[in-house]
UniProtKB/TrEMBL annotation:
Name of one Pfam family that matches: ABM
Species assigned in the record: Gimesia algae
Protein known as: Antibiotic biosynthesis monooxygenase
UniProt domain ABM: residue ranges: 30-80
Domain of life: Bacteria
SUPFAM superfamilies xrefs: Dimeric alpha+beta barrel
Amino acid sequence: MNPTRKIPCYAVIFTSTLSDSHEGYHVMSDRMLELAAQQPAYLGIESFRSPAKKGVAISYWEDLDAIQAWKQNPEHQSTQVLGKKQWCQNYSIEIARIEAGTHFERP
């Protein structure tokens, strides 16, 4: 939980497993992070990938309209096509509304 994130907000949870043929994925992933950060109502992202090629990316948005606009972004759409064709063995997307959260940080 980011202490500065506006609540309530929405989280888009993208889980995936990379295929053996994922050359170029990391360059495109960096580009998508850059592009998402330029979108209105974008609040941030956290992502993790295991050595076994399983990953989770959670992006945060102010509202559902912002998520829909990101989904319809032409560059994002073309990246989704490449993901299905060559980079991802599988993936799933879930959307959740965040109603509350807490944060702890050691001084």
